[in-house]
Amino acid sequence: MTKSSSIGQWSSRWMFIMAATGSAVGLGNVWKFPYMTGQYGGSSFVIVYLLCILFVGLPILIAEIMIGRRGNASPAEATAKVAIESNRSRHWWWLGFFGMITAFLFLSVYSIVAGWTASYVLRSLQGSFVGVTPDQISQMFDDFLKDPWQLLLWHTFFMLITVVIVARGLKEGLEKAIGWMVPGLFLIVIILVGYALSTPGFMEGIKFMFRIDWAAIDTKSFLAALGHSFFTLSIATASMMIYGAYLERKAKIAKIAVTIATLDTLVALFAGMAIFPLVFTYGLPHDQGPSLVFKTLPIAFGEMPGGGIIGALFFTLLLLAALGSSISLVEPIVAWLIERWNMRRAVAAWLTSGLIWVLGFAALLSFNYWEDLKLFGHWTYYTFVDGLVSLVLLPVGGMLLAIYAGWVMKRKYSEEELMMPPWLYSIWRFIVRYFSPIAVIVIAWISF
Ligand code: PHE
Known about the structure:
Layout: H1 13-24, H2 27-39, H3 43-71, H4 75-85, H5 93-125, H6 134-145, H7 148-167, H8 170-197, H9 202-210, H10 220-232, H11 239-245, H12 253-281, H13 292-295, H14 297-303, H15 307-341, H16 345-365, H17 381-408, H18 411-418, H19 422-447
Helix pairs in contact: 1-8, 1-11, 1-12, 1-15, 2-10, 2-12, 3-4, 3-9, 3-10, 3-11, 3-12, 3-17, 3-19, 4-5, 5-7, 5-15, 5-16, 5-17, 7-8, 7-15, 7-16, 8-12, 8-15, 9-12, 10-17, 10-19, 11-15, 14-15, 15-16, 17-19
The protein binds phenylalanine.
The site of phenylalanine has 14 residues, from α1, α2, α10 and α15.
């Protein structure tokens, strides 16, 4: 492998940590994690989720960043190059490509929800949550989803910001945007936990999340927790692979990955700690699914003094978190178009985002006009793609990355790339070779 970077490099290690954390922290932490915890019974889901992060997600996150840096190319090229170096077939290009396809599908639904957060920034500023009943707030959200033009407007808005950032490139676009988004998000989450602390339902919310109740553990939640551990760490969409490709060679990947996973987990737990106390304080249902953040938090924003500003800040930062994720979903594809098809960055960025934007129509229509159009008699486009990505593509992609890092790559190359203490390296290698792939299969097996 050449030492020089042919495809650009982060200006610092810290920038990589921020970018990867910006990718990891997203709607998955502040929107999805709380609602899944609510749906799957609270603490039992949280425990399974934490175990999945530690023993499956983190080792694979290390693997994905490592493959990217070793390959130092776009994802499809990186998985080919690294395989060739270990005397394996160049056909492994499809592994990187598989990640890019997943990213593509993923963003077509992710962007719709990100659009909701943008719209809620405006609503908070307009004071829409003040002086209205919880029922009216709930109705407001339902009406919003029924209006495809509104959804289109916000989806377009979100994709436009994404494309403008990605088109400007690594230093001028990604780094400049990420540099202030990530610290800002942390600040706001902490402020919100502080507020939740002052509500009477705080302890109940905390108990709901953390009191261990083994009897409540439901095997169905296993696959959901595993899928979500990949989702939240941005695994298997080639995002971490391309970000790893931009990482300087001396940086210690495992250490950095632990930092990213820790920050990501903290944001998820804080988000839960900000939200559940409000749910219990106001006697709201905790298991209503995807609408949790859009129906419960606004109630609190409507009640608290200065809630309009805090609400706007919360949704702005949720929006920024989603942006950090969306740019990392577009980037792997853009890098590939530049490298493989010699496209100019701006063209590649607009083409990729444009196609995702179009695919997003199907997602936004599935909340209204196409609500009754059920794929395989069961799912709307949105629920289908959401399930396909979280429950199939991410677990399968993650498993393949583990197999690739553990079996396809020669030991000496991964050892060289990771620069870990030998005992830790052995544990990592054992996990990616045996534990992670088997865990994915067993969990999928017991969940179905
Ligand atoms: N990790 C992001 C979240 O938690 C989602 C994501 C997945 C982003 C894959 C990029 C790539 O919201």
